[in-house]
Amino acid sequence: MTPVIFSDTNKPLRHLLAASVLWIAAFGPGMTLQPGASALAQDSAARLDEALTGAHRLAANQARDTFRHPKDTLLFFGLRPDMRVVEISPANGWYTEIIAPVVRDHGQFYGASPRLGNNAPEAMKKREAAYQTMLAANPAVYGHAKAVTYDPAAPVFAPAASVDLVVTFRNVHNWAKAGNADAMFEGFYAALKPGGVLGVVEHRARPGTSLQQQINAGYMSEATVIELARKAGFGLAAQSDINANPLDTTDHPGGVWNLPPNLRGISEADKPQYLAIGESDRMTLKFVKP
Fold it and tell me: What structural domains does the chain harbor?
């Protein structure tokens, strides 16, 4: 599958249980529902269940569901089968396996990966090729999905104001390190319709952690991420502890990469204690474009 490159250069609370707030979490303030959208929204949980248990998913990916809570996370962001959704930097396609089948029949899925130059690391080139192969190899699941590429310094993810939902999972620390976090959030804002939702899951640093410490350890503070979104024009709609992990102290010698699934730099003798922690403590934030 050949990636789509958009030429448009236009750039411009914790989890609550009350029924009224759950309605907002499901639909997003200001979002206009199309005829039949209510029925589709009610079907979202069932569609997610089908995707999560589908034969197309890799067993290794399914094993991570217990740490990543994909169903609760996507329902919190308000995913519906009729949405146009952009997943930012899908890497190996962990969330693509879940989102793309849900919106296949009534919406549109875009997997947006950074545009790689000739000098990009071979590992990144192989990962992107593997993602393209994954989409092309299963047209029954991914036949309507579109792979797109973007320039991280001036990203365009979709035609301006055309998308209902943008989601990103554990990527903000990479953009902070590269110095293009502001540009990325501006790109999200440009792609979304008024009332559209930006859903962010990110490794969570302790309040007061310096930006350099956040970059070094791969954990971002909620205040830093909220400020990035606010500067781009977003309003914070809701926060959730769906992906919280109180066992994670966030002060590991090798940063977040010491934890599973990476276990980078961890000896065989020490692996049991890191496996017992599980994956990182994560913020789950829902922003809305006014």
Answer: 4-288 (3.40.50.150)
